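Batch job 17 of 40 flagged for manual review because the log was empty.
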Amino acid sequence: HVSILLSHQVFSIVVFGSIVNEGYVNRVDELEEHCIFNRNHNACNYGITVGVLAFLSCLLYLALDAYFPQISSVKDRKKAVLSDIGVSAFWAFLWFVGFCFLTNQWQASKAEDNPLNEGGDAARAAITFSFFSIFTWGFLAFLAFRRLGDINFQEEYNTLFPNSPSLLP
């Protein structure tokens, strides 16, 4: 679980870092820089925002994973896992939207807007890691769903055998 969250952090850093670093270019005859994705600032802003917020969300859930074994109440554990499922599914959706949006804007970009093809590798990296993020966040939601099944089992076990020790760490 922790290694997947760390990969999410790396993916989000790649996405927002590549856009921030090389996602804005200008023509030779212009001073103002424009987003490399079809000169659409919304595309760059979306990639940066989702990347930064996903990174912060990873930090939050890393802290929750570290704190999780100390949560003694089965109901509180269930709430934590349900939030993990919801947040992970939400991020998978946001990365899907981001992948589609960035890909669409990259395809619509004109060669004359970037004659030196600056930032092309960064744009492709942002699109690629947005794509990878869809599946890793979806897999994290799946793992949280499995953890929820373990917690439900623990809850039923505690109901049937109230004086026995806990089965989950």
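Reviewer: the log was empty due to a logging misconfiguration, but the result itself is present. Helices lie at 2-22, 41-67, 74-108, 120-160. Unflagging and moving on to job 18.
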